Amino acid sequence: MLEQLDEIRTDCANRLIRAARDRRSPMHTPVIVTADIDARVMVLRAFDPASWTLRLHTDSRAPKAAAITADPRVAAVLYDKAAKIQLRLRGTARIEVQGPVADAAWATSTNFARRCYLGDGPGAVSQVATSGLPSEFEGVEPDDAQLLPARENFAVLLIEINEVDWLHLAHTGHVRAQFTRAGEGWSARWVAP
């Protein structure tokens, strides 16, 4: 077990880096909670350790986009069962539909992933069970030209982390630490689990 606060914060950053790069990482799909007390599992696409920013992809028409625009406070929960480590993150989010970050994220997405933004917006009501995709794209990878209308629905969700709550579960006794942004650095403390 890690015993120094600086080591723990570095371990947290390394776990987030790996979670974004490795789809088999147990922290690859965090639970994201918006200020309207709605939670959902999302895929972590990138983590920038310099700015402590998470990047996830979303549909600009999703209710969470409006919720974040109204109140940018968000939280995330990630858990590694094998390591018995839970991370609870709090931060400030923003939705970017245009600009270099959104453009780069779109450019690196596969056409199969991009097709998700062709269909009905998240939450659209249907009379039957549906993926929301146009029928011609069910199970089919569209070409670049067919995906042109999808780009306007694609957005990135960026979460700048301001607080980290680290918990290590152990039969000998759980251990917990908290980290809070303090200017350019971080303050850290041990707390009872």
UniProtKB/TrEMBL annotation:
GO terms for molecular function: FMN binding. Residues 38-95 form the Pyridoxamine 5'-phosphate oxidase Alr4036 family FMN-binding domain. SUPFAM superfamilies: FMN-binding split barrel. Pfam families: Pyridox_oxase_2 (PF12766). InterPro entries: Pyridox_Oxase_Alr4036_FMN-bd, Split_barrel_FMN-bd. This is Pyridoxine/pyridoxamine 5'-phosphate oxidase. It comes from Erythrobacter sanguineus.
